[in-house]
Amino acid sequence: MLLRGLSYRDIVFCIILTLSILTLSACEPRLPRETSEKEISKPNFVLIIADDISWDDIGAYGHTGIHTPNLDKMAQKGMVFNNAFLTASSCSPSRASIITGRYPHNTDAEELHWPLPAEQTTFSEKLKENGYWTVASGKWHLGPQVVDRFDLVDEIAYAAPDNASGGDTWPRLIKEAPEDRPFFMWFASWDAHRPFPEGELPHKHTEADLRIPVYYPETEMMKRNFLDYYDEIARFDMLVGNVVEALEDKGVADNTLILVMADNGRPYARDKTTMYDSGMKTPFIAYWPDQISQGAQSEALLSAIDIAPTILHLSGTDIPETVEGKSFHELFHSPEAAFREYAFSEKNWHDFTDHGRTVRSKDYRYIRNNYTDLPATPTADTVYDPIWEERVAMYEKGELTPLQQIPFIAPRPAEELYDLRSDPLQLSNLALNPDYQDVLVKYRQVLDNWMEETGDFIPTIRSLDEFDRSTGEYTPNRQRPRPSKMDMYGKHGAY
């Protein structure tokens, strides 16, 4: 017997000591066996936004000529969304919509360069309130009133060496993220915005890589321009690869959801600022090792306003009532599930006055042009590029096809309807086709209902052009400061 030879006092002491140890052990907090520290920690989020890249100009979406190995790898190990749509094919309105989860006309920042007002609620500030370290780096373009919605705003000028060459800016910020807080990072690249500067890029494309849409003339100048555009996409891909590597080096890649997208389509006429898929459809890749279905593709219809509620939901943060989107988190595990029936987008002032609305389903796109007296002039950065001067000359000589002439034609049709099953590039307008009148009536009503539900109106006055439509020459006619909502929309306007 172990207790033989001990005094009564010693025996009592041993018993008390043993009971104390057992009691302390029983009271020690423990995690359930099925719950790990990784599971109870909040996930990190990185949103990477390209500038002016169309959805089908990435290898994962079928363009095998463009060098995007990092994005392609993310797609293989993550999830590709094949029907993700922006609410505006215009830089700052698109970004304002993403960060608020609201349609542009409800952000009060629906026209290019209009700053997001302070009274708007952003999902970054909600993450910040919930303990997240929040950072925005790269292109800002949201105005001064919402800088405080992030812990740090690191605005990078256009083509700055560290951002343009894929230096250490974004990896450095990841490295500096606090160890005791989850983080959200809004990384906004300038690639592939015009002008395309000369210099060393990670990959040089050749003419064999080209795939130019039929609505562009394939001149030597246009080919060289497209190759420059491709080279900038390759640089964006390198930036994305740097981010993934930095997350892995920090040991947080498995607990970080990366979303990669663009703010609008490629910077060419009939793409950027238009309401076609080439302007409104965005590449959208989700990468979150071991947390989402790897290598999956989802055909679910998404809107950019759905990003905010999805991130907020996954972070355990309350979703503000101002948000007009809905969380698509369930698609990460059920990519085949249905989500939206329609995606709505809009066109407002971008260098030149214009106004239009569109609704997209999986089968059709319906477009309503409200300023039919004006041609579909592209952005100013396209108009003052030499490729536009060449195209104007070709138009005047009658050397363009009907599709290539569209940016010069006025009046425009008030309505456009495209059957995406037979016409995915939206080249043949069926609005006047008698066989599609029932479809036309249906989509008119769908768009009307959405406008009424979201408080959307056609402006009673127009913001003036800021550039000459033929030469791109700056003409400071636009009203600054901007007109009030009352001036723009009248007493019944949306606020």
UniProtKB/TrEMBL annotation:
Note whether Hydrolase occurs among the keywords.
yes
Q: Which keywords does this chain's UniProt record carry?
A: Calcium, Hydrolase, Metal-binding
What range(s) does the Sulfatase N-terminal domain occupy?
A: 43-316
| Entry keyword Metal-binding | yes
The record's listing under InterPro entries reads: Alkaline_phosphatase_core_sf (IPR017850), Sulfatase (IPR050738), Sulfatase_CS (IPR024607), Sulfatase_N (IPR000917)
Q: Where is this region: Disordered?
A: 469-495
Per the database entry, which stretches of residues form a coiled coil? none
Which PROSITE patterns does the UniProt entry name for this protein?
A: PROKAR_LIPOPROTEIN (PS51257), SULFATASE_1 (PS00523), SULFATASE_2 (PS00149)
Q: What Gene3D superfamilies does the record point to?
A: Alkaline Phosphatase, subunit A
| Superkingdom, taxonomy of origin | Bacteria
Q: Which Pfam families does the annotation name?
A: Sulfatase
Q: In what ranges is there compositional bias, type Basic and acidic residues?
A: 484-495
Q: Which family does it belong to?
A: Belongs to the sulfatase family.
Please report the name of this protein according to its UniProt entry. Sulfatase
